[in-house]
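Hi all, long-time lurker, first post. I run a small reading group and we've been trying to get comfortable going from sequence to structure in the token notation. Rather than ask abstract questions, I figured I'd post a concrete chain and ask someone more experienced to write out its structure so we can walk through it together at our next meeting. Sequence below, copied exactly:
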Amino acid sequence: MLDKVIRIFRRFIDKMEIRKHNEYTIEEYFRKRGYFIGKNNRIFIRYFGTEPYLIRLAIIARLPPGLNLSLTMAGPGSLEKKSGDQCLRQIEIKDNCFIGLDSIILRM
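-- Answer (accepted) --
Happy to help. Here is the structure in token form:
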């Protein structure tokens, strides 16, 4: 019971902390949580998913409201084979990228 209360409290604190940021300052918040995010980005979304190591965001990218970065393992290319092992592939958004409103980005 206490564990559940602690998880709810942590989620509440995270939501309060994320509200302090705007589209220019949110990248530092995500960097502290393990996401690889370059400099000078405008990020309007507030949730990337639960696997920060699967997102790579380069320099000067624009992520609009409504963007969905799909990290599900739905397609045949979502797993990459390397020397008999299977590893998850990342979503990588390159330099100077502009993404349209309400877009969905899938892993290859």
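A couple of things your group might point at:
The beta strands are 36-37, 42-43, 55-57, 62-63, 68-70, 79-82, 85-88, 91-93, 104-106.
The two ends are 41 Å apart (CA to CA).
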